[in-house]
Known about the structure:
By secondary structure, the chain is an alpha+beta fold.
Amino acid sequence: MNCPFCNPPRKTKVLQSRASSHGRLRRRRCCPDCGKRFTTYEAAALAFPRVVKHSDRRREDFETGKLREGVNRALHKRPISEEQIQNMLDEIHTELQGHTEKEIDTRQLGAMVMRRLRALDQVAYVRFASFYHRFEDVEEFKREIDALSNALSPLDDQLQLSLGAEDS
């Protein structure tokens, strides 16, 4: 690994290695030339199922960047940490690696994302669902929001009531 600060031809020195979440490896490194330290994360290059586009049945290789972009778009300006986002993406990767078929439909992949977004942030869930389901009119959008509201547990209702009482 070359130093990202001074990029010398010599390799950096590994100071510490340890397992990170979801099978990733965390390495703390130091550059022998400039002395700066940085962290790298490594993951095994595993084969993911090919993605079958629902609209035209076209097949593409799974791309983590596209998945991250869609999730980031849904979570834009939401109070969700980068660590939470990475954990969610790691969970999806783990589920995909356990997928027994060689292909996965975009509807299945979208459902994986929506299930996790719904638990993580309801606004992000609605944003993602609006794009994913391609709502044709306001009524479809309203039905999805109503379904989300009806799914709130009594504990969620109690928490919302207590938060509302603090505002008064």
